[in-house]
DNA sequence: AGGCGTTGAGTTACCGGTAACGTAGGATTA
DNA sequence: TAATCCTACGTTACCGGTAACTCAACGCCT
């Protein structure tokens, strides 16, 4: 019976047992482990020896509970991992968080606000140190949860002049507008756009809106916009181009949701012997790694994805430690004129 | 003073307050919330009304603590997010976990066992429901921590006949061996390899070893192997090819660490007007999305990354709920002969 | 010798839930 | 009608730490 109990409880060594083994009180052991001071060197050595010998692993759940504090978890929601853009942002976030002893709790919201709401509720119930959410749109209940939870929060990606708490991103509308204006300046008159599901009021939609506005302002025509029900990857860029060109062969230039889709388009054009930029112009967005190996410089919008993540994490960490943090950070963008238009 | 307290404590509504407001005991409120039964419909309605009115959010930390249970977190360690291969695995894991009310706690170990050990210790102190680790190599202390923690564990990626607990992956050595044999059968005699940092005993090294063994067994020559100190992406594939060919122009075929590197090579060859497969053969690994838009089918090894993640999560969840789970799952691979050799 | 500060501890209460047990009162059964 | 069972709760103790407090022993000073 006793054996069974021991084997089933396995590693249930807690602070009391360490203290007992070291011949001190629980409190003294606690002080030693937290290096709080108020104990002799002799005691410290005794306690640490028992910690080592028994393989004591602190129960951080209990610590959080005792102090009525929060954990060191930071909830990070991103739409999905299939979109390369967000994996770079996530990497920037996690690198920074880890170096400050925090852990990323992942939330893939699949671009659905309802999923996000559920996830927020779950994560908040675990008392996170902070939250980073991709996008500025949330359900009313989510907003209420976030406000009353009173947890440091950064909304990233799409710039938001009045964030719930803090915000790090760029103005997607402007980036689309600038691209539109640039293409107009190149003499194009018939414009196309290819992206993926834009049901939600997301950043890609803002880019499309900016693009459309620029074209309208400049007297051009957005002949065709295609929103595929797919991920914004290489192959959707490939077949999206095929679809767009077959339904509207007069389009002179296409703006894609991101570089990967644009590269898909480049490969489609190569396969069909359509000259770039002679027969058609191609523009991407986000400057993704693939662009570096193309035979010509892709026309795109350069965005420092990693920087967004880092800055979001930095501001969050500041607020977590009670310091002042910038409420709104604009990381900006840069138009890369390239050779594909 | 009182106001200050209220505003600072904000949403500190706990079960006691809900119970008091509903005119029942804490225990009854607890039973209602857990739908445990043992209460009248009238009571249920009263309690739920107060939960709603007060915006009560359960403190899951306290629940875990009370029951001396584990959280619903699952620690997932991957080398890095910059490697597209692992993001697919991670996506498979998280999708499955989420649908069973678990959350992914991310750990980027940067291919360093010491980082992994630190991360394991931290995550274990948070009482996770389970762990998924990429790779089979761990520090002795990490292994000891994992064993004594007695938490469900899946080691993924590299197949391991004697895992600490469970294992999901494929035989990387064999996949390299098969590729080597296939290339030999195509008549090549002088072989090259380009990958990234192989200091650790990782899966890519196993592939290289399998490849080298096949070449040796077949009487060919592994003329040159290049291990760049970079990420296994497009551009390293591009300049790695340049480096390899300039130092050893006689190489007839190159096996790359993954498809992205191979695509970088394809673009290098296109830029230099080197014919594929006429002048040189190119082989990748992993069948990544970019391969779908190339003008010809890339010779590669197809691996179902998403499936690895799903299967790992499935087995973990089985074990978490106390059921039997497969100790070792081989997801296999498939050689894609392609047109680039 | 008595007063006082410092050092190195121990004691108590508590964080927010839940397991285990206790119990009043009505319904059912012998 | 009394014994018994069930329903719908309430009470108590506890999970593993830590904040806040208490306290003994010792050295030091006047």
If helices are DSSP runs of H or I spanning 4 or more residues, what is the number of helices of chain A? 13
Question: How are the strands of the biggest sheet of chain A laid out side by side?
Answer: 2-1-3-4-5-11
CATH topology of the largest domain in chain A, what is it called? Rossmann fold
Assess the beta-strand content of chain A as a share of residues: 15-25%
Report on this structure.
- Chain A has three domains: 57 residues, 434 Repressor (Amino-terminal Domain), CATH 1.10.260; 124 residues, Rossmann fold (3-Layer(aba) Sandwich), CATH 3.40.50.2300; 131 residues, Response regulator (Rossmann fold, 3-Layer(aba) Sandwich).
- The first copy, chain A, is of the alpha/beta class.
- Chain A is elongated and about 85 Å long.
- Chain A has a six-stranded parallel beta sheet, sandwiched between helices. A four-stranded parallel beta sheet of chain A has the order 7-6-8-9, with helices on both faces. A two-stranded antiparallel ribbon of chain A has the order 10-12.
- In chain A, 46% of the residues lie in helices and 17% in strands.
- In chain A, helix 2 packs across helix 4 and helix 6 packs parallel to helix 13.
- Chain A has 13 helices and twelve strands.
- The termini of chain A are far apart.
- At the A-B interface, helix 5, helix 6, strand 2, helix 7 and helix 8 of A face helix 5, helix 6, strand 2, helix 7 and helix 8 of B.
- Strand 2 of chain A pairs antiparallel with strand 2 of chain B.
- Chain A binds a DNA duplex (30 and 30 nucleotides) through helix 3 and helix 5.
């Amino acid at each position: 019976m006793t054996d069974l109990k021991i084997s089933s409880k396995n590693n249930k060594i807690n602070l009391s047992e360490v203290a007992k083994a070291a011949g001190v009180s629980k409190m003294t052991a606690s002080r030693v482990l937290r290096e709080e001071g108020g104990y002799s060197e002799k005691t410290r050595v005794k306690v640490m020896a028992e910690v080592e010998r028994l393989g004591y692993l602190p129960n951080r759940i209990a610590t959080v509970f005792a102090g009525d504090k929060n954990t060191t978890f930071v909830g990070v929601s991103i739409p999905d991992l299939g979109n390369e853009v967000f994996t770079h942002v996530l990497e920037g976030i996690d690198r920074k968080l880890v170096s400050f002893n925090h852990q990323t709790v992942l939330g893939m919201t699949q671009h659905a606000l309802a999923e996000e709401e559920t996830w927020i509720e779950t994560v908040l119930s675990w008392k996170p140190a902070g939250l980073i959410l991709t996008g500025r749109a949330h359900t009313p209940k989510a907003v209420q949860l976030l406000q009353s939870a009173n947890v440091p929060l950064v909304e990233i990606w799409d710039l938001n002049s009045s964030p719930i708490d803090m915000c790090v991103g760029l103005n997607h509308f402007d980036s689309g507008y600038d691209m539109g204006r640039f293409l107009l300046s190149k003499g194009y008159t018939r414009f196309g756009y290819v992206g993926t599901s834009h049901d939600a009021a997301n950043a890609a939609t803002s880019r499309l809106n900016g693009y459309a506005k620029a074209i309208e302002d400049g007297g051009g025509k957005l002949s065709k916009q295609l929103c595929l029900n797919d991920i914004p990857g290489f192959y959707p860029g490939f077949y999206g181009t095929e679809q767009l060109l077959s339904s509207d062969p007069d389009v002179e230039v296409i703006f894609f949701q991101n570089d990967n889709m644009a590269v898909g388009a480049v490969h489609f054009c190569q396969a069909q012997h359509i000259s770039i930029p002679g027969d058609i112009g191609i523009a991407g967005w986000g400057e993704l790694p693939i662009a570096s190996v193309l035979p010509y410089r892709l026309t795109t919008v350069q965005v420092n994805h990693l920087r967004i993540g880092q800055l979001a994490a930095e501001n969050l960490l500041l607020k977590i430690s009670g310091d002042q943090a910038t409420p709104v950070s604009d990381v900006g963008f840069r138009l890369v004129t390239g050779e594909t238009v």
